[in-house]
Amino acid sequence: MNSFVIIFWVVLNLLLLLYILQEFILAVSAIKSKVDAKPAGQKSYPFVTIQLPLFNEPFVVERLLKSCANIDYPADKLEIQILDDSIDETPQIIESYLKEYNGKITFSHVRRTNRIGFKAGALDYGLKESIGQFVAIFDADFVPHPDFLLQTIPHFQNKEVGVVQTRWGHINENDSLLTRAQAIMLNTHFSVEQLGRTAQNACINFNGTAGVWRKECIEDAGGWQADTLTEDLDLSYRAQLKGWRFQYLFDVISPAELPSSFGAYRTQQFRWSKGAAECLKKNLKGILDSGLNLKKKFFGVFHLLNSSLYLLVFLLLLISPIVYSIQLNNQVLADRFSYLFPIGTVVMAMLIIVFSIGHFMKQKMTANKVLWFLPSLITFFGMTTGISVYMAKGVLEGFRGQKSEFIRTPKYGTSSQVKREKRRQRLSLVMLFEVLFFLYGGFTIYRGIAQYNLLVILYGLILLMGFALTLFFSNWNWKWKR
Is the pLDDT of residue 428 over 90? Predict the structure, then answer.
C-alpha cells in the first residue's frame, strides 16, 4: 500500500512536470520570437464599434468612459456601445456623464430587460445593433490608450486576421503583495503563453477584453455563446478551428486594474478555471478531429487543460502528508524510492524559472521589480495553493456540465469607498479540506523547525499563508497606505 502511494505521488508529479515542460517550450519560443513588423500605415478607416460590457461598476465606469472618449480615431467612423446590465447606481452615473459629454463620438447606452447569457448575452445583443465592421471590447476596469485603434486596426489589412489581442498592463500592480503576485501570473500568461504560442503558430485566445474582433469572424464562428463561463476562450477556439488567424501584439499594452481583495481574485479564478474545463469538454473533439497539425493540437489541448492543474495540486496536497510520513517512518521504502523524491524539487525549480522568464522577459528591469519578485512569487504560490480545493471543485463541475452564475470580479479604481464583498462561510467539504490543509501547514512548519530544514519550513509557510487567505482574509482589501 505504501509503495502504491509513493508511485501515485510520483505519477502526479510527472504529469505536473509534463505540463511545465510544455510551458518551458513556450518560454524558449517566446524568448526567440521576433516582434512582427508593423503593417503599412492605415490606408482607410473602417467603421469600428467599441463595446463596454458592464454590470454594477460605479467606481470605475466614469474612468472607462473618459478614456474611450479620448480614443484617437475619426469620430464619424466610431461608435461606443455601453452594454449596461447594472442594477445599482451605475446607469445614473453613465447618464450623468453622457449629459455633460460634448465630444463628437457617438455613445449609445444599451439596457436589457434581463441578464440572459450574462456577458456573452450582452455582447451578442449589442453586436446585433452594431454597425462596425470591427468590434473592440473593454471590460470596466480597463483604461485604453488613445492610440489603441491606430495600433490594432491596421493589422486587419490581412483578410485572414479575425482577432487582434493586446497585452494587459497593471495600473495597481504596486498596491500590495496580492496585486504583485497576480501581476506575475498574468505577465507569465502574456509573455510566455500568448507570445510562445504565437511563435509556435499555435492557437491563442482572445482574453475577453483589450482586443478587436472582425465582426465577420464572430458571425462565422457561431457568435457569442453563453454555455460556458469563459465565452472568450470558447469563441477563440471556434474561430481558429474555422481557419481565422489571431494576431497578438506584445508591444501594445492596455492598462487594467487587478482585483484588490483575495476574495475577488478567488472568484475570478473560479470563473476562469470552471470555464476552461467547460471549453475543453465542448471543443476537445473539434480540436482532435480538425485539420490542425499535431503540434497545434498538442498545444491546443494543453491550453484548455490549464485549469485542470488544480486537480493535480489538490491530489498532491492530499497525498503529500502520507508520503512525508512514509519518508520519516519507513526507512526501507524511503531508501528504495530515494531517487524519486527530488522530482518535487525539480518541478518547483522549473516553475520558478518559467515565472521568472514571464515576469521579466522583454521588460525594463528595475531594482524595485527585482527586489519584490521573490516575496511576490512566494505569495503567488500561497494564493494558488489556497484556492486549489475550490478551483478543483469548479473544474469537476465544468467537466460534469454543472452550470453556475457568471459572477463579476469587483473593481474599485481609486475610490476609498471600498465595499467588502460578502461571501458566505458555510461548512462544506471544500472548507473542511481547507481547514485540514491549513492545520497541516502549521504542522509542517513545526516539523521543519525541528529538523532545521528550510525547504520544509518554506513549504509549510506557503500552505499556511494560502489557506489562511482563503479561510480568514478573503474579504480584506489589500493596499499599501500612501
Answer: no
